[in-house]
Every structure is written in structure tokens, then in C-alpha cells.
Amino acid sequence: MASYILKRLFLIIPTLLGIMLINFIIVQSAPGGPIEQIISKVRGQAGDAESRLSGGSEMGSHAEQMGSHDSIYRGAQGIDPEFIKELEKQFGFDKPLHERFLKMIKDYSCLDFGKSYFRDTPVITLIQQKLPVSISLGLWTTLLIYLISIPLGIRKAVRDGSKFDVWTSAIIVIGYAIPSFLFALFLILFFAGGSYFTWFPLKGLVSEGWSQFNWLQKITDYLWHIILPVTAMVIGGFAKLTLLTKNSFLEEINKQYVLTARAKGLSERTVLYGHVFRNAMLIVIAGFPAAFINIFFTSSLLIEFLFSLDGLGYMGFEAALSRDYPLMFGTLFIYTLIGMVLQLVGDLTYMLVDRRIDLSATRG
């Protein structure tokens, strides 16, 4: 067991390096980098200044003084070459690609993620500020999804073909068909001041002055803010797990050992929870890391945007749009590391549910 855990922890390092290397090459080779972003802003400001001039002669003479420059950056024609060189030095682009990658990995090994290009704040500080929001959404959503889906899936399996199974299946189909962000818009429209009721806040995870509240007011205010976004994510995520649980239990219920247990006179509850539950839950538990990662990294992005929740997913999305490389790779590093650790946790939980599984005997 201990040797398996150590082996998996050591495998995290090359896997993490490979993921970072592939993304580094792709992102660095893509057009529209930070220098081009700044050039675009400079040209936009210059265009505004030119439109305010009575003629255009001043701007034309200034461009002639700057001269032409064959640059690898789109839109750099007419921009002072020295200005471009200063930008390259500022962002570290004056060094070869491999040197930049090795320096980044060396810094990351010391948890030094650098400073955001456009926020002028250390990346680690931004991650620490935004991570609690995303973790709150992910943990509450995952907890509620499992608390709803597992009992519902078991009941549907036990009462397969009944009226209960039919009408709950209709609800599941609706939940499966409606994306979480679309359901979030519905909730905002009806309950957050969109058109009908203003029962819940639309912005932030807590109210202004939250730090001055007593502990009961803090908890109440926090739950008041998180009800709508978590509800939207739960509706969009519980359908798959419910069907997975039902199908897993149906498969186990029809096996020979269940018939044997019933023939021995064991109660239905003992058969269901003493024998079937352990085997049927293996696939559900094995899918926990993937479910949490999907909720934490994918579903929460649009939810954070719609409810103005300043979380890690939304920050990473903004960083990708603005080509803020330190912020992009910093969040990617954290995402990947959390994902691989959760996968290991899922494997260990898999073993705890079924003691017959010996992870130390597996290879790789």
C-alpha cells in the first residue's frame, strides 16, 4: 500500500512536466501573445489621439520618425523597435523557448509562479484569493449531488419499472438535457431580481461588511449567496450519477450471489446494503475524482461568470483571453496537481470500499 502511494506520487512529477511542456509549446506558438495585446492597445490609443487632431500630419510625422520594422509580432509595423525589445525583455521573450520553460519549472518547484502581466500582483496571491470561491462551489455541489443521486439511484433500481421510476426518470432527462448555465439564467430571471422575485443576491459569495457579522449571520449570509449557483450546478450534474448508480445496482441485483443470499433467508435490507451496496458502489466511487474535477474546473466557470463570483475558473478564463501567461500556467499547474491528487484519493477510496482490491499488486 505504502509503496503504491509512493510510486503514484513519484509518477505525478513526470506527468505534470509533460502536461506543462505540451501546453507551454502550444500557448507560446499561438498568435495574440501579451506583446501583441499591448501593441493593439498602443495602436488603439494612438488611433484615439489621431482622431482628436484636426489633421493627421502630426501622427504621420511621428510614424515616420519611428520608422518601419520587420517584426514577428502582428501589427508591429511602425512601432519603435526599441519599444518592442523592451517589451520582450520585460516579459522574458528575449530568451530562447527552452530557457523560458526550464526557468518556469524551476520557479514552480519553489512555488514561485511569478507576477501577473496585467494585474501587477503575484500569481500565488491571486490563486489564494480566488481558490476558496471555486472550492466552495465544487465541494457543496459534489456533496449535494452524491447525497441526492446515490439514494435516488438505489431507490430507482429497487423499484425498477414502477411509477416512481418513470416520473423520476422524466426529471432526470430534464436535468440531463438542460445545461447548468441555462438553468442558472432561469434562476436569476425568477429569483434574483431578473423579472419576478428578488429573494437571493446576484453578486458575490458574501455581502458587504460580512466580516463585521457574528458567526450565525456569517453562515446565513454565505448560504444565502451560494444557494442559486450551487442549485444550478446540482441540477446540471446529478442526472449522470443517478443513472450510473441505478445501472450499477441493477447489474448487481441480478447476479447469482444475490439470489443465493435471498435464498438463505436474509432480509432485503441486509442483501441490499450488506452485499449489493459494496460491489455496486465501486464504479460510483471510482468516478468521484472525474466528477469533482468536471464540477470544479468546467461547470463552475460559467456559473462564476453569471453570478459574478470571482473564482479561480473565471480568473483563468480571463487570463487566457488576455494571454496573461504567468496566470495561465499557474492556474494550469494548480488544476493539474489537484486533479492528479484527487485521482490518487479516488483509487485509495476504491480500495477502502472493497478490501479485495490490492493496489500494491498493480503495475504502473
Q: If you had to describe this structure to a student in words, what would you say it looks like?
A:
- This protein is mainly α and 364 residues long.
- Helices cover 74% and strands 0% of the residues.
- It is built from 14 helices and no strands.
- It has helices at residues 2-29, 34-52, 57-66, 81-91, 97-109, 123-158, 163-177, 180-191, 215-253, 256-263, 268-286, 288-306, 312-322, 325-353.
- Helix 6 (123-158) crosses helix 12 (288-306).
- The protein is globular and about 85 Å long.
- Mean pLDDT is 78; it is low at 48-70.
Features of the shown structure:
about 375 residues, mainly alpha, 14 helices, globular
In a nutshell, what does this entry contain?
With 364 residues, the protein is an all-alpha fold. It has helices at 2-29, 34-52, 57-66, 81-91, 97-109, 123-158, 163-177, 180-191, 215-253, 256-263, 268-286, 288-306, 312-322, 325-353.
Separation of termini?
A: 13 Å
| 3D shape | globular
What summary fits the major beta sheet? Answer: none
Radius of gyration equals 27 Å
What is the element string, with H for helices and E for strands?
HHHHHHHHHHHHHH
What is the percentage of strand-forming residues?
Answer: under 5%
* Helix run count: 14
Helix-strand makeup class: mainly alpha
Say how many strands there are. 0
- Helicity level: over 70%
Q: For the residues shown, what is the average pLDDT?
A: 78
* Residue runs with pLDDT of under 50 for 5 or more positions: 48-70
